[in-house]
Give the backbone structure.
Amino acid sequence: MKKRIALILLTLGLTASLAGCGSKPAASQASGTDSSSASSAGTIELTNVSYDPTRELYAAYNEVFKKHYEETFGQQIEITQSHGGSGKQALEVANGLEADVVTLALEGDVQVVADAGLIDNGFTSEFDLDSSPYTSTIVFLVRSGNPKQIYDWDDLVRDDVGVITPNPKTSGGAMWNYLAAWYYFEQQGQSNEEVLASIKKLYSNVVVLDSGARGATTSFVENKQGDVLLAWENEAFLSLKEYPGEYEIVVPSISILCQPTVAVVDEVAKKHGTEDAAKEYLSYLYSEEAQEIEAQNFYRPSNKTIYDKYVFASESNTITEIPADGKWINSNIKLTDISYFGGWAEARKVHFADGANFDSIYDQK
């Protein structure tokens, strides 16, 4: 009996000893996890908060930038993207969404973030060309054959035309749409009161005011609403590419030069320790490699040599397919810019602030 008890005690002692030995690999595993975290911490992480139609652009750009950054600085970098209506995105960042950089639809939306104390003054001077590495304009997307014969802005006020455009209260692209229309009617010699009446009539034809440009495209292309979509140029070309033979682009006689603005969100980048990487991320948008990607994604590159490679000559302002030679930029269009409206601060005050012109239009609907 005593021998059996001794044997049991010996067995228990060996088990405890083995369990103690077993704890060492567990400790080693924990150490390995810490090492992995350190490795993860060695990878820089950037968040880019952008607007709706840049999804494809930045999906392509981020890949080449990651390669460039690792080859140049010997460090890996990962980029997280966020997309939505530009005005809504600006408010999200101002209210706490932590973005290292913003690449929004217009300077005015970046100013919202700056007004929240997150971006230093002078952000439009931090990078070339008012911190606008690429541009766009506003065009019309219509169904194949252009059944409603829509060719210019005055066609949008006809009683038989249903218009799709986002809401300027949440979408930067929608503000560009509105201002392009306003400029057109002024150029027809209309007085301020007549222009406002024309704009009201146009918006009375709007079928739905989506929160962002991509949502508006979905309403028109996938949900088959409306007769014409007021679209970013790149968004319209993506529809031609994705749905060949179903849609046509109509380039109006007059539009507006859209200047999306990029900026480092200084306070967040300082907090994250990503200031240098954030600046490099935005600076590289001006590189030849990035400018080619921008052009291939139907944004107008700021590099004139690359821009000229994509310009085509045509008597027609209707585009029915993606050109086989890749030349897609129609320069046969008169473009104004935001300076015509006194800059974004003035444009917001007159047209988009609470109680301004658009509110009277929106209240009407």
Remarks:
- The first helix runs from residue 2 to 41.
- The chain has two domains: 43-134+260-296, 137-257+316-364.
